[in-house]
Amino acid sequence: MTLPLGKRPPLLTMSHIEKTFGTDIVALKDMNLTVNEGDFVSLLGPSGCGKSTALRLIADLTHPTRGRIEWQGGQGKDDLGIVFQEPTLMPWATVAQNVWLPFRLKGQGFGSVKGKIDEALSLVGLDNFANAYPRELSGGMKMRVSIARSMVTRPRLILMDEPFAALDEITRFKLNNDLLELKEAVGCTVIFVTHSVFESVFLSDRIIVMAARPGRVIHELEVDTPYPRHEEFRTSNEYAAHTRAASDALHDAMGEAA
Question: Which of 30, 37, 93, 173 has its CA 20 to 30 Å from the CA of residue 12?
Fold first, then answer.
């Protein structure tokens, strides 16, 4: 069971992070952020504010120019799952074989982890598609495969970089609902990059609003509506109030970036 906000132990801390590309492109400067066990954190901000760069730094896909990223208790190889903007599936491999990839990279045979693969596919509603190929799937189903692959090792933290941006609104809403159920089932922490105020409010208990030029945190908002959240939350006065607050903070961030 996830602890209430304010009582969760820290999972990772970004301290005075700066990331410069080349000699003069400052993507992030003095970015400070603590992510706690069980948080659902959305990074919200205008294009070019460094949201995806921050995710890549946490994933150790690139390194900060200055500053430190520290994991509580150290980071293990199974602590992290990543979902990119595109599903990035191997077209020649079946759904089950795509989900197997994190284990395969560690030298674990398919048969030895088949039970975990089946469980992950069941959690994303693809039990009957284990032997299908990506070309046979819809866009939403491909993203479900990507999510299953990210969570099959039961990581402490899942990073999601605008995974639903290219999907139609109905599919996006459905996957938002499903994602909250999956987070509860897996018991992980999520950092989610989005441009959508509405998506950030529905999903998150913490919204980190970033400004660009250079990228940094300028607002942090709490969405204290308890989980589980369902469709009625989207039409509630509480949801409307949170979206207004997030919209105001985003407008402020865009002014800071101008």
Answer: 173
